[in-house]
Amino acid sequence: MSDNATHILVVDDDDRLRDLLQRYLGEYGFRVSTASSAAEARVALSGLDFDLLVLDLMMHGESGLELTQFIRCDMAVKALPILLLTAMGEAEDRIAGLEVGADDYLSKPFEPRELVLRIEAILRRGGPKQEEVAVATFGACSFDIERGELTRDGAAVRLTSGEVGMLRLFARSPGVTVGRAELLAQADAGNVRAVDVQITRLRRKIEVDPKEPRHLCTVWGQGYVFWLD
């Protein structure tokens, strides 16, 4: 394996799943290190450089949520992309993970190939930026990324939690094609078709002509891309 291979740290207290992910991701050319707890992960993070962290949310002792919060406050590893894994699938759990700084969320059980696609999508976006735009302005709209607040022509526009998650993802990576599977993690939706429905609703709130979108555009066969201007 090349020394330039993407280095991933998998943190999960399930020995079987941890070993399975190490083997599977290794087959896709990733360099994989593992940790069975947040404490082990901290040691690894202090001594090695990683390109991405795959982290179980519910672990004994310090949880994945707490470790994510720690990482986002530590300047040495603050920009490390994080993909959370959990057996919990409720919308509030997805939102909690994303709110503390995770880049994506995948519920167990999951297809290993989907995990690879999610990882590739995060790496393609480049992870969180040290200097991130606080407010995205496009057309007559202004979106406060941190607060999740949208205005159009100066008037507040109500967004659902799923729409906020989607718009945050788009606003943080304008010009980058985002797949439906990736959007599913951000939306309060049960399937990929529901993602398309939420895209349609979001267009009605941000586009002058939703049928001829200028900002939230379809990339046929791939997903959607967001343009600020």
Structure keywords:
229 residues, alpha/beta, Rossmann fold, Arc Repressor Mutant, subunit A, five-stranded parallel sheet, 8 helices, 21% strand, elongated
What does it look like?
The chain is of the alpha/beta class. It is built from 8 helices and 12 strands. It has a 5-stranded parallel sheet, sandwiched between helices. A 4-stranded antiparallel sheet has the order 6-7-8-9, with helices on one face. The protein has a 3-stranded antiparallel sheet with strand order 10-12-11. Strand 4 (82-86), helix 4 and strand 5 form a beta-alpha-beta unit. The longest helix is centred in the last third of the chain and has 15 residues, at 192-206. It is elongated. The protein starts with 6 loop residues before the first strand and ends with a strand.
- Spatial strand sequence of the major β-sheet: 2-1-3-4-5
* Average pLDDT metric: 85
Rg for CA atoms: 18 Å
Q: Helix share of residues?
A: 25-40%
Number of domains: 2
User: How many E strands?
Assistant: 12
**Shape designation:** elongated
Category by helix and strand content? alpha/beta
Oligomeric form of this entry?
Answer: single chain
Query: How many DSSP helices?
Result: 8
CATH topology of the largest domain: Rossmann fold
Task: Write the H/E string, N to C.
Answer: EHEHEHEHEHEEEEHEHHEE
- The low-pLDDT segments are 127-131
CATH homologous superfamily (4th level) name of the largest domain: Response regulator
Largest β-sheet summary? 5 strands, parallel
What is the name of the CATH class of the largest domain? Answer: Alpha Beta
Note the gap between the termini.
Answer: 42 Å
